[in-house]
Amino acid sequence: MSTPLLELRGVSVDYRRPGFQRARARRYRALDDVSFGLADGSALGVVGESGSGKSTLARAVLRLVRPSTGRILWRGEQFDSAPRSRLAAIRRELQVVFQDPFGSLDPRMTAAQSVYEALEALEGVRDAAGAHRRVDAALEAVGLDPGLGRRYPHELSGGQCQRVAIARATIVGPRLLICDEVTSALDVSVQAQIINLLLHLRARSGMALMFISHNLTVVRVLCERVIELRAGRIVRQGGTQ
Amino acid sequence: MTATRDLLALDGLCVDFTTAHGTQRVVHEVSLAVAAGECLAVVGESGSGKSQTFLACLGLLASNGCAVGSARFAGDELIGADSEALNRIRGTRVTTVFQDPMNALTPHMTVGSQLVEVLTAHGLAGERDARRRALDALRRVGLDDPDGRIRQYPHELSGGQRQRAVIAMALMAEPALLIADEPTTALDVASQAQVLALLGGLRAQGLAIVLITHDLGTMAGLADRIAVMYGGRVVEEGPAAQLLAAPAHPYTEALVRSVPRADAAFGQPLATIEGQPPRPGESLSGCAFEPRCAVRIARCRADRPELRASGFEATAACHLVAPP
Amino acid sequence: MSDALLRAFGASHGGDGLWSAAWRRLRGNRAAILAAALLAGVVVAAVLGPSVSPHDMESVDWSLSPLASPPSLANGHWFGTDANGRDLFVRVWAGTRVSLLVALLASVVSLVIGVAWGATAGYLGGRVDEWMMRLVDILYALPYMFFVIVLTVVFGRSLWLIFVAIGAVGWLTMARIVRGEALALRNRGFVDAAIALGLPAHRIIARHIVPNLLGTVAVYATLTVPQLILFESFLSFLGLGVQEPLTSLGRLVAEGALAMERAPWQLLFPCTVLASILLTLNFLGDGLRDALDPRLT
Prior knowledge:
Number of strands of chain B: 12
Mean pLDDT of chain B: 87
Oligomer: heterotrimer
Shape of chain C: elongated
Mean pLDDT of chain C: 83
Distance between the termini of chain B: 19 Å
Largest sheet of chain C: none
CATH topology of chain C: MetI-like fold
CATH topology of the largest domain in chain B: Rossmann fold
Number of domains of chain B: 2
Distance between the termini of chain C: 32 Å
Structural class of chain B: alpha/beta
CATH superfamily of the largest domain in chain B: P-loop containing nucleotide triphosphate hydrolases
Order of helices and strands of chain C: HHHHHHHHHHH
């Protein structure tokens, strides 16, 4: 098999619980010796009950939290020790959408501004008119009328906010999109729309997907492979069919 | 359904909110009934008005909200009742369970003291008696180690356990009716199943339940009757089995079709309802569902359909359902 | 530079800039507008008042007996005179000028330092936060008057010294409040999203943390100004603040309090002006908070 796009080897993440207990009691192992690989263009589901470590896994890959042991490799290259310039390039290829549709957008920025910020941070903007076009195109690609870009998050529905978050994550065309419980906070009917949107985006761009959810049915529709976490460890790996 | 049999009877209930943009009506002329020992599921998307309807019954609307119409509990009128009369009913004869258990539980009080408080605050029992009943309630909801749980704080319990504790709190005063607003939405799938089974068991013991949800899939097997709300109105209502097997209203049919099936295939797009539901308070002429309806006819845009009989003890608001 | 780009994008891509939307909301708030008008009136009076009166601040009107005389339209002493026969009308407005100037400048200084300090400490968290806030705690514990006296001895008494002294203390509470809000904001999803975009810490603080704090800052800033006015008057009362012939509202109130029974007008006028400033600032603060929070529709 060729080099996987993303690979975890023996990754563990410890959290320190706040409080006055003894140091050892304070440590809480959220992820325990997790290893798996994700191939370019494939879709991997991550399931488990709440508290099983699924979100911690996403945060570790995104470097929002530092693993205590183990290595995370992107295209075979170790992520942790990558120099700044390499990090920027990796971020262009690796993006995320979070669970809370309203919380993941800055309430003081319009939808279009949030999407624009991603474009500016990941690629840089030289040409204002071109940037406008790309933001509008990104909004259309997720099924939103570009006019909605003017609205603030509190003026949009949950499903619309989530689409904006997806537009923000995909505007620079990442190779891997991590979705952390992105449909859990939405109505069932809206969930279906978002799932279809992700299917469509994958079909169009060949983007890989790491889909974290506690809903097996939805994972089955989106992903060929799934890993199940319990108390931070992988208890099952395999195909979804 | 005769009036004397109904535990909760809503008749022409409307809810208005005064905002900076003027008065908006978010619930239009809702008439529903729940009989003793029956489970009514009220299904609708966010913004359909389903929660506001029952918040209005209990006098729990926000300060800029106002309810018009009638809602009777065991014959007593709830709309416009003073807070003393409402307090006699709320928490004792009609209790509620909301979506987020952390909001229902006070973080700085133990689970036990909150359960006990339900009875002592209403003067229904003394401290010792209340504590005994709290243990019973925790056992009844299937929480392991009730003696231990009683001393724990809410944050020490998992989401599913917390929701059970909230249900236990709702059962303390032996209510006749439990109103559950999205009780399983914030829980993971395993906990969802457990809580739903618990509610089913309670219903079997004679508790009437109003289950408000956006997920048709969760209350199959639990609901006796289903009412579907869209755009602030009831668009279909009837016995659960009949409604799920042969929905009369296009919206209900679309909802039924969009429930993810256990045998869903990889890569197969799910059935969805294109478009967006109307925003709460948006006023429309004609049928609210018309823009998204697959079987709309010319009449639907101008002429709003009234509820009409669509089957045995069932009604639906659609022009395509022939009036008797 | 890219903040300007982002703002320009927001403005040109339609949608209200956040500030214009806030401005519209503020305009609709009648209490706030009334308060702003009244405050503007006080400011105008402070600027123009002394030139309108036939008297000036320092000269003693020997024609009066006793020297402290009640308000009268006839002799041009519209607010009466103080114990030394000086015209109170001119003194009140001159004092208002000083009080407002000191409080405003000191507030701006404490706002800038406090917000920057608190937002950085709250966002970075961990040990940096601990050290930064320990410094705030230490400064809080400092015997403040001692500090001011030392400054006075070293640098002599001057108005600028008052600014520095007051500003140096005013930022502490602002820093604490801002740090608390920043801590809460740090856990919000959009901050994680910004980190995932690779934005550096200073940009996240400037672009996402601080703008979401502004509601709290606005309200607290309008509470700070009256606090600083009172603080300055305390200093003046002790002889460490504004010196003769300059005067401030605080000094006038202190002097008026002494003469309260014999010459109530000496207390009444400065008090009324001071109270008006405090009240209008409170209403403005409320209005600002409502206008800057986009979720209140």
